[in-house]
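Please, structure for the following, as tokens.
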Amino acid sequence: MTMHMRIDKRNGGRCSRRILVAGGAGFIGSHLCDSLLQRGDTVICADNLLTGRLYNIRPLLNHPAFSFIEHDVRDPLHVEGSLDRIFNLACPASPPHYQKDPIGTMKTCVVGTMNLLELARQKSARFLQASTSEVYGDPEIHPQPESYAGNVNPIGPRACYDEGKRAAETLIFDYHRVHGVEVKVARIFNTYGPRMLENDGRVVSNFVVQALQGAPITVYGRGDQTRSFCFVDDLVRGLEMLMESPAALTGPFNLGNPQEMTIEEIAREVLACTQSASPLRFEPLPKDDPRRRKPVIDAATELLGWRPSITLRKGLEATIAYFAMRLATTGSPSEAPRRRLAKPGRPRLTLAGSQ
């Protein structure tokens, strides 16, 4: 069999790869698609548009190296031709969305991951899993290293996602040991930036939209619980570096910003950046909401050469500008058009150049 590899002169002569991004129309996935195309790769984006939006990838639909498949990973995915890399970002990642259909969330985490691992095995493709800091639960160790086994409530309202992602990691390393699939696991901490959904229940998007609308800023608990916020561009760079690292570096790797701050501090930073007069409104803390969250990123720094570089102020300014534009043009940042889902098991392909 003759193998045809395209050489991209724009990227130092590196061989262009054919890459599947599952969940590629979502917040992080769409930024990843942008970056992969910019470096000269061919990108196949698969998304069921549950939380992903065509708005996020619409500028890419005319790109000659981009194609879109409307597909739910809970059904097996068939891709013609070779595949070099598979990024799995296919799962709702915010509590309101993954708790809306908890059984579906668990199936996406487990069955969906297994379907993509089977595809990776068939295609001899390298596989990267977008796992999460939620595998640590409400941590009893602070900050959290990759060696920490976590403190997760297996029967709580967040368990469909937390335990689903933990089970997915188990599957991934079993496929690595049993079938020899090349795997990478990134445990992603709080990430923010343009293309977040305004109604996804995440801290930064909630605060920014409320501030821009002059509404009270909803702070859960006393606001003294902590998070560490990483801008999406930094995260995407980390995902790419992990995927292209030596095969022996399987992870898991924490990817996040180790700068810890309280929820009230981030709320006041958003108010300062937006010059909003919105008051803070304190509400009861949701069940199983982690009290502290901060990654240890020594492994990513030492083995991948990665660490975040974008300051919170710069990242917030870009995020605020995005939401301000969406509010001005649509009245609601989440009102991007959505297509009706294709029937299960029958993915719909949108080729580059079609709308």
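The chain has one domain: 16-350. Confidence is low (pLDDT under 50) at residues 1-10, 335-348, 350-355.
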